[in-house]
Amino acid sequence: MISVSAGADVYAPTLAYLLAMGSAAICVYIGNFIEKKMRVDDVVGAVAVHGSMGFLGLLWVGVFAAGYPTGVNNVDSSIGGQLIGMATFLPLGFLSGYAASWLMRKLNILRVPPEVELMGLDVAEYEPNIYLPEVAVTEEVIVEPDGTQVPAAAVVQRARDEVVV
Fold first, then answer.
1. Is the Cβ–Cβ distance between 27 and 43 less than 8 Å?
2. What is the mean pLDDT of each run of 10 residues along the chain (165 residues)?
3. 31 and which of 48, 49, 93, 108 could share a cystine (Cβ 3.0–4.6 Å)?
4. Which of 41, 39, 51, 59 is nearest to 95 (CA)?
């Protein structure tokens, strides 16, 4: 959808469908490349989906909608205009986000501690009894990685004791 949204007002439905299907296939390969070759931690695939498909969507408009008037001023779209848009997209969108993430990583504020991830961010930040009432977890059993079974209430209490809020 992201790869065809830039030209959704001028594409024929069949063309939009074909471009979306082809772009979806390309997106999988781009996501694997970003995570495996570039070793960028993109947990939800936002860079592959929104970043690369946004670029590809701009390129598709330049290729398949060239000559169509767009906007209030009825300026014809062209591949050159789309390439200029892509050239401004990279430093303003991607590089600024990458620089902000790099800085946050160096300051150690990009991720929450592992204990908070296990406990759940909502439980660590807010009053625990609202989200995990003791009554709801007393009967459940959690199987630890070593195979031992522990009552869920004990695991929740251990996580609450370990997390510094």
1. no
2. 88 93 94 89 85 90 87 83 87 87 86 71 59 51 80 73 61
3. 48
4. 51
The CB-based long-range contact list for 69-75 (8 Å cut-off, 24+ gap) reads 70/9, 70/10
pTM: 0.59
* 153 within 8 A of 165, measured Cβ to Cβ: no
**Angle, CA 151 vertex, CA 149 and CA 154 arms, to 5°:** 120
d(CA 40, CA 60): 26
CA distances to 124, 136, 145, 149, 156 from 140, in Å: 20, 8, 16, 10, 11
Pairwise CA distance, residues 45 & 87, whole Å: 22
If we measure between CA atoms, which residue out of 55, 122, 44, 134 comes closest to residue 88?
Answer: 55
